[in-house]
Amino acid sequence: xxxxxxxxxxxxxxxxxxxxxxxxxxxxxxxxxxxxxxxxxxxxxxxxxxxxxxxxxxxxxxxxxxxxxxxxxxxxxxxxxxxxxxxxxxxxxxxxxxxxxxxxxxxxxxxxxxxxxxxxxxxxxxxxxxxxxxxxxxxxxxxxxxxxxxxxxxxxxxxxxxxxxxxxxxxxxxxxxxxxxxxxxxxxxxxxxxxxxxxxxxxxxxxxxxxxxxxxxxxxxxxxxxxxxxxxxxxxxxxxxxxxxxxxxxxxxxxxxxxxxxxxxxxxxxxxxxxxxxxxxxxxxxxxxxxxxxxxxxxxxxxxxxxxxxxxxxxxxxxxxxxxxxxxxx
Amino acid sequence: xxxxxxxxxxxxxxxxxxxxxxxxxxxxxxxxxxxxxxxxxxxxxxxxxxxxxxxxxxxxxxxxxxxxxxxxxxxxxxxxxxxxxxxxxxxxxxxxxxxxxxxxxxxxxxxxxxxxxxxxxxxxxxxxxxxxxxxxxxxxxxxxxxxxxxxxxxxxxxxxxxxxxxxxxxxxxxxxxxxxxxxxxxxxxxxxxxxxxxxxxxxxxxxxxxxxxxxxxxxxxxxxxxxxxxxxxxxxxxxxxxxxxxxxxxxxxxxxxxxxxxxxxxxxxxxxxxxxxxxxxxxxxxxxxxxxxxxxxxxxxxxxxxxxxxxxxxxxxxxxxxxxxxxxxx
DNA sequence: CTGTTAGCGCGTTCAA
DNA sequence: TTGAACGCGCTAACAG
Lengths: 330, 330
Prior knowledge:
The structure is a homodimer of 330-residue chains.
Chain A: H1 4-11, H2 15-23, H3 30-43, H4 49-56, E1 61-66, H5 72-87, E2 91-96, H6 101-113, E3 118-121, H7 133-137, E4 142-145, E5 155-159, H8 161-174, E6 180-185, H9 190-205, E7 215-217, H10 222-234, E8 239-242, H11 245-257, E9 267-271, E10 285-288, H12 291-303, E11 309-312, E12 315-317
Parallel strand pairs in A: 1-2, 1-3, 3-4, 4-5, 5-11, 6-7, 6-8, 8-9, 9-10
Antiparallel strand pairs in A: 10-12
The structure holds a DNA duplex (16 and 16 nucleotides).
């Protein structure tokens, strides 16, 4: 491995000068700089980023901690963040927690040991509060997105969950569904409690009493959505706002089993606008979060050391599962 | 930041001893070790991995370079690799190339600058040969998977593409389809040329002449699959083996537009067993690669510095799109 | 079992 | 404009 010392020896100068020339320091003669650059090129020099980072006391690596990377939402969010971070010279270590608290703590801690420049973080379902984060992460700059803890320092990028759920529920009401329940997700997590509030407000603004017995929490996966939808059917629901697309998918499974016609006899709206929502039969209406923009915003907030909460609008994509009598499309 | 020197001073010993105690070196008195561990804990010491890696001349970070992380195949492969690497104390930097050669070269080069311990690599579509890899990567240990270049050093983990395509095509033949074409993918890439060979062999073993005009290359995305399927229909095909699931999905779009009934009048088999293949209407049969196992194998090959090619079997998942007259299921 | 010495490769004083 | 000297935090060789 070629070092700046090797270059210095070859040129009969000192490592300091080489270092300056390579760093673009103006206090070095143009002639010398050219000689150094030429020699570096010729000898195949590559800066040792480890040593450089150690000396400067900073790293050009950031960590991204998400529950899973095989979700359209998170993978697009990562792409959005990388598009900004890459330009700024940062690389990302991506960690999956698989929704497990243990794994999450280990990931945060490892990133801290690596002295990363910052951590982008969306917490897992098993994490019911933020108490584990700062002990594991220390004083590393934190940017949270989507699933955020309000009581932690640093920037927070969130979707307009209240408004999105409000719009989705209103859409179901306007479509003529009468007994609208919700697969509400994990209510200890803000994204889900916000969505529940939006759902409730939409009902009340339309003169429909909020009925606790139509709220089915803790189901965001296909299997749990399937089970909860069965309960919703038993409770007499004719529509569901699901706080996640996988739960909506499970609901579709249950409705098919019951031979209930969607959207004629049952309306369905999911959340996240996953790729597959467009492909099912019937396709699934969904409120989407614009993850790519959220990732970009998170990266910008990090680069500018901005604090505070940024809210990104959500968009309702109406598809077959709530398009009763074709009133919305075609 | 607390360093080993701080601990040493607090205990009236030298940094070396602290380092040894922390590293679990047996050449240190149990009593001393306890004192060090206790002090480290109390003072909130955290090892500086950068410094440690610099000194030891090795890194505990590996790079994973893939075209995209929002594919079931790649995300599961990454999960599989991480499951092994994590146990061995390695962390992964994940890089997406978005199928662009430029991005791929930059990713490899950045990983080299970071002196990662190894690189796991599946090349992008734009890379038609391996000439850019070693110049960008240098002497960093390389493990390739799925889309591999044979002429590069290091381990290679590949799916049984020939056999998988052979099985898929045979399945279409046995289902009674007569004019079977293929959306063959990019034939400069081995996974795709292997699949084409498997397709061809299956035809020939069943007495069906191989017809070049039924081979439609360069389509692995939904849009290009859609376009190629139109051409296949025009060419009189009544079935397609697609070397990718997204191309199969695009084919379904085209067939729906033509009001051609699948699987009654047209058979379809894709490749990769993406999550969505199960959800479409009709659902899409697909040959899957067992990505989680491939990731594990890749990680093991890296840890054991194993060279050579490892082949992972593929599995045909028969779904509606090729289940003519219900002869395969139910 | 522990201390001394000597760097890993780089960047940044301070002098000259 | 350049050089000399030092140290980031840690580990490893060699003594003792």
